[in-house]
Design a protein that fits this description.
The chain contains 14 helices and 17 strands. The protein is of the alpha/beta class. Strand 2 and strand 3 form a beta hairpin. The two termini are 29 Å apart. It binds pyridoxal-5'-phosphate.
């Protein structure tokens, strides 16, 4: 049955992905099941989306209840789930204002507009620049693509939006070299995801924060992949004592309902986007709001972040063992439940054999396997994953 669906998909869907040959049908906890009923241990969670695992009863019931009540109105009116979601998200982040979007890329778009408007209100100029990082990933819309530091994704779609400059992550001199009188913001992922699981170092982040303060630039941290508990703190920057002026979230914040948000401090909120400057039809509708509200409630009740930190430390240890045991594994990178293993060879074959063995993994670049399990995993799940991965490495 799977084979026929895959053939139909290849006829109907635009071929923008080289998909793995599996059709997932349902999920339960940290496991996925394909159409043939085969069970898979999931170490991807839909790319850092399903933090709570599949089929969380409270989450499912809340969404079902909201569907029966009200799914959508318009941002011209207020709705309770979005208000509750906003309060919870602001409390968790220490930010002051939030705008809800439908995706990560849209959150990045909003952050870019916020930075430009903030600078525009200061000097009336319309030629401000943003500094972004090489190897970064911020999404596929034209604005988000323009700040994505991977020329391969951008080239065919040039021209990008103008006045974006790129610097090297963790190299403060390269950032300083890109600052001009027109710079309005510095944007980065606190931990790069697609680019290969690379952490912004604490000293670098602190130096960038100081640069931003010195020149009145906005520090924008993209927490779309690394946020929501994945690294063992609610947001990755909270580990460093460095607070952004603007932050983007998406992926796990809705746990499957397509939502995102950009958040900012009061100072930025009061001096940037105003009525008529930005909008969205769906963003923050009652269903989306209910999803975010419920996710944050469950995070608190089930101590999700603490589990990510604890099991993240164990995953770190087990992956480090692989680095010492296998000569093809060069390095482990990452933090908490956001990890990458760097190989001396392309990893596509290893990932395919893992999937055949009932373990879902994903890459981040050709030679890196990325680990983004649901944040509810246990140490036993980590052991099960390692056992299967070892089998695949022995056959590689
Ligand atoms: C996934 C991702 C995005 C884009 O989010 P979409 O919801 O796919 O638009 C942006 N930034 C980072 C860091 C991401 O991981």
């Amino acid at each position: 049955m799977m084979k026929e669906y895959i053939e139909e998909a290849e006829k109907a869907l635009l071929h923008t992905y080289n998909r793995y040959q599996v059709v997932f049908d349902k999920g339960e906890g940290v496991y996925l099941y394909d159409l043939d009923g085969k069970k898979y241990l999931d170490f991807v969670s839909g790319i850092a989306v399903f933090a709570l695992g599949y089929g969380n009863q409270k989450y499912n019931d809340a969404l079902k209840g909201q569907i029966d009540k009200l799914i959508h109105t318009s941002n011209y009116y207020y709705n309770v789930p979005a208000i509750e979601a906003a309060k919870k998200l602001l409390k968790a982040s220490g930010m002051d204002r939030v705008f809800f979007t439908n995706s990560g890329a849209e959150a990045v778009e909003g952050a870019i507009k916020t930075a430009r408007k903030y600078a525009y209100l200061k000097d009336g100029h319309t030629d401000h620049e943003i500094i972004a990082m090489e190897h970064s990933f911020h999404g596929r819309t034209m604005g988000a693509l323009s700040v994505t530091g991977n020329p391969k994704y951008r080239e065919a779609f040039e021209p990008m939006i103008g006045n974006i400059r790129f610097a090297a992550l963790n190299d403060i001199e390269s950032v300083k070299a890109q600052i001009t009188g027109k710079t309005c913001a510095i944007l980065m992922e606190t931990v790069q995801g697609e680019g290969g699981i690379i952490r912004a170092e604490e000293t670098f982040l602190k130096e960038v924060r100081a640069l931003c303060d010195e020149h009145d630039l906005l520090l924008i941290l993209d927490e779309i992949q690394c946020g929501m508990g994945r690294t063992g703190t609610m947001f990755a920057w909270q580990r460093y004592g460095v607070k952004p002026d603007v932050m983007t979230v998406a992926k796990a914040v809705g746990c499957g309902v397509p939502v995102g948000a950009f958040l900012m401090t009061e100072k930025v909120g009061a001096n940037s986007l105003a009525a008529g400057d930005h909008g969205t039809t769906y963003g923050g509708n009652p269903l989306a709001g209910k999803a975010i509200e419920t996710v944050l409630e469950i995070f608190e009740e089930e101590k999700i972040v603490a589990n990510a930190e604890k099991v993240g430390a164990y995953l770190t240890k087990r992956l480090d063992e692989l680095v010492s045991e296998y000569s093809c594994v060069l390095e482990r990178r990452g933090i908490g439940l956001m990890q990458g293993l760097v190989f001396d060879r392309p990893v596509a074959g290893i990932i395919e054999s893992a999937i055949a063995e009932g373990l879902v993994l994903i890459n981040a670049g050709a030679q890196i396997i990325r680990f983004l399990p649901p944040l509810i995993i246990t140490e036993e799940h980590v052991d099960d994953m390692i056992t299967i991965l070892k089998k695949c490495l022995e056959n590689a």
